[in-house]
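Human: For the file, kindly provide a plain-text protein record giving the amino acid sequence and the backbone structure tokens, at your earliest convenience.
Assistant:
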Amino acid sequence: MNNKNITILGIESSCDETAAAVYTTQGGLLSNELYSQIPSHALTGGVIPETASREHMEKIVVITQQALAKANKTLNDIDCFAVTCKPGLPGALMVGVAFSKAVAFAKNKKLIGIDHLEGHVFSACIENKVPFPFLALTVSGGHSALYLVRDFGCYEILGSTLDDAAGEAFDKIAKLMNLPYPGGPVIEKLAEAASFKDFFSYPRGNMKNLNFSFSGLKTAVLYHLIEQKAYDQETKTFLKNDDLDFKQQVASSLLVCIGDIFEEKIIRALKMHPYLKSVCFVGGVACNKYLRNRLQAACEKKGKQLFFPSNKLCTDNAGMIAFVGHYKAQQGLFDDLDLKVF
């Protein structure tokens, strides 16, 4: 493949966003189109895998056509198809992978399977010149992890999710409080109204290592709600819908707690690896302005610059998949048409 100008079509369908993007060597990210299933899953307060798969099948052709049109490209212009193959919902992943395989075969083009989390790790590099090596904190609905990143495609995990991820904790605690899905933005808005104060001192968990565990925090909030007669466990009903102050205090305490955890883990990682030149905060939760500000202040104290993607590149998207596919194509790291999902 000619490395002078490679054109990549990226496909993302790991959970509840159907996305397609075009990335070229010379032009960078030319398009990054997305269909969000949030309105459908908001009705049930969380992602239903069968619903996600069905909507991916309905939208993937349309979204791909939109991405190509915005980039002023056709399928004949595409040199390689990059598609998320792991991790994610099996049925959702299969839609994107089957579609990409079919088009790659029909057009006799190359195919690359992409790790969704690798997409997040390098998403800040699309818009920023991030100096290597850097520390990446990836936080989303299903994953919270720290990576030591040496170069494109060259990284190692320093700490990962042991049970519930931060995004999942936001969503599940929001559901306990009868708040809309997704929970993160709603909790941040409530916390802001309470001036981001820590009212209830929820447990921070084990702060002596780089792994993440939010199951205990989620349980602690549940029992606190029960003790405050705010939640009936038998009927699974939130009893203080009209007590705005209480909801704001819970949300604020939760967000401050999670901010403390992230800040401590980053500081600990930087102490262990002082040669790291910068820090990236990526994933859907990186849209949270309070957490951005907390981590930016912490990094400045350590003399490190914090980078994060624009909001459209924080949430699941195909731009980051196309970007990773591009440097893998330059390295000749292609997959066969028997590519599996994980």
In short: Residues 169 and 218 are 6 Å apart (CA to CA). The chain has two domains: 7-123+315-330, 131-308. The radius of gyration is 21 Å.
